[in-house]
Amino acid sequence: MHDKPILVTGATGYIGGRLVPLLLAQGRKVRVLVRSKRKLDSRPWAAHENLEVIEGDMVSGKRTMEAARGCGVAYYLIHSMNPSHKDFSDADRKAAYNMVQACRINRVQRIIYLSGLVPDDPNLSKHLASRAEVAQILSLSDVPVTVLRAAQIIGAGSASFELLRYLVDRLPMMVTPRWVHSKCQPIAVSNVLTYLTGVLDAQETVGATYDIGGPDVVTYRELFEIYRKEAGLRKRFIIPVPVLTPRLSSLWINLVTPVPTNLARPLVEGLRNNVVCSENRIREIIPQSLLTVQESVELALTRVRQRTVDTCWTDAGEPEIPEWVTCGDSSYAGGTTLYSAHAVHIRDTVEQVWKVVKSVGGETGWYKDDYLWRIRGFIDKIIGGPGLRRGRRNPEELFIGDALDFWRVLDVQENKRLLLLAEMKLPGEALLEFTLFPVTTGTEHVTELRMVAYFHPRGLWGMAYWYSLCPVHMVIFKGMLKAIAKAAKGDVVKGPWRIRHIALQRCSLDTVQKLTVAKAMKRNGHT
To answer: Per-residue pLDDT tens for 40-69?
Structure first.
């Protein structure tokens, strides 16, 4: 089995993005099934000699057979609880059936599934019930399944940790539902990864189900208090009330944290169930030092402060690239594309200006009129969008697929281009593009920086929205270009000026610059 590749699904997600490089470091051959190879190309390990990438989709079944062909073991790390699926349970169901079929026909010897810790409770939340159903579906064929069931996974960038962090950081007083007294058994992400890799060589785990958890069983109230102490915050006052419904709780969480309503609601509903390990057999089979809740939170906070977050919960999923961005006939792809374009000449090198451009958003902000961006982010939060609180995974580096406030990175070309797709609530689809060009003026270095907002309106409301904001865009964009020049410590040679005629560069998404492993490792500060 060791000479056969290991299939990893969900390789661009929070756990998959950490598991794949771990398997590669162990000298194993890995094959990944991803919806977008472009999104994977920017990862430091994307060009590893033992990695094979297949572009497909488990929910639709696209190329799943090819992905499973010749594999000895398959990791199932897919969870469809994201905005692209209106009914995540149905999407999970379809993906699980496709996985079973692909593994059965290709005679894969084993499936390893990371599930949620599902209690013996008839009143399960939809989220936990879906996790249990997937486990049942995966067990329908004669391919043995190893199921690892975890409660909250604590690690820098995990949804559970980010939810905890934002709630305690921002709220000196919390009015909570009764679930604040529910019990849970969190586990550190490093311990989860050890179990996931450990079961590969533990033959007694084939076809078995195990609960995995840390050494501590705590209530959510106690979890809040542990975080508060580790973060060095003042005392938080928690007031549980019986009238706060999951819907109201999720709306409140949406406003306070970066977790959107559609993700917050199923998570909150799951908090009403006690999620505690019913057995600990896995500890004898795969012994390891389990981090306490306090140690897990401390380590996660250290990673956040050191800005060394490898993967984030926002990594999961793949943004849908609008048809009007890709190759094809523009009239067929969809009607009017509006734009607002501005440019400036900066007396500085392209490399220096690019450092400033690629640091936009997150803690850095948007260089000019940040209060307007915050107002727009707050409005977006109120109407159910992501708002600005998602920030960015790292303040200096960007990968394709990264969340960046209420944008998603579609394209990154070093010293050339940054393309962002809007994920805020809009009556249409929007892109924001930064492009850099060297300008020759004698012996001095001059860079032309262009900033273009593209908008594809939906109906009259979309047109009205765009034209009402045009004057605001002109002020903000010109101010941003000047501020970027100042941040780059370069003088403005010319402009900013408005570009009146410009065309969207179709097909450019298919020509993303590929990074070598050495270059990517160097960029990410690894040796």
So the answer is: 877 888 889 999 999 999 998 999 999 999
Q: Residue 287's CB: how many other CB atoms inside 10 A?
A: 10
Euclidean distance between CA atoms 81 and 318, whole angstroms: 12
- Burial annotation 319-341 (CB, 10 A radius, 16+ → b, else e): bebbebbeeeeeeebeeebbbbb
Name the nearest CA neighbour of 31 among 80, 81, 65, 61.
65
Residue 150: what are its φ and ψ, rounded to 5°?
-115, 150
Task: Write down the residue that tokens 């309106």 correspond to.
Answer: 457
Residue 181 DSSP code: G
Q: Count CB neighbours of 131 within 10 A.
A: 24
Element containing residue 47 per DSSP (H, E): none
Measured distance CA(300)–CA(216) in Å, rounded? 17
Query: How are beta strands 417-422 and 407-413 bridged, if at all?
Result: antiparallel
Amino acid sitting at position 267:
L
H/E element, 285: helix 282-285
Token couple for 273:
């169930």
Backbone angles phi, psi at 220, to 5 degrees: -65, -30
Q: Each residue of 266-298: pLDDT tens digit?
A: 666 667 778 899 999 999 999 999 999 999 999
pTM for this one?
0.76
Cβ atoms < 10 Å from Cβ of 242:
6
Sequence-ordered list of residues with C-beta below 8 angstroms from that of 352, at least 6 positions apart, any chain:
447, 488, 489, 490
Helix (H) or strand (E) holding 464: helix 459-487
Instruction: Give the residue from 266, 255, 268, 260 showing the smallest Cα distance to 424.
Output: 260
Average pLDDT of the chain is: 83
- Residue 84's pLDDT band, with cuts at 50, 70 and 90, is low
Q: Which helix (H) or strand (E) holds 38?
A: helix 37-41
Domains and CATH numbers, the chain: 6-315 (3.40.50.720), 327-522 (3.30.530.20)
Give dist(CA 196, CA 146) in Å, integer: 10
Q: Which two tokens stand for residue 138?
A: 């995966």
Burial of 77 per CB tally in 10 Å (0-12, 13-18, 19+): buried
**DSSP secondary-structure letter at 365?**
B
**Please, are residues 373 and 514 in contact by the beta-carbon 8 Å criterion?**
no
Is 367 in contact with 358 (CB distance < 8 Å)? no
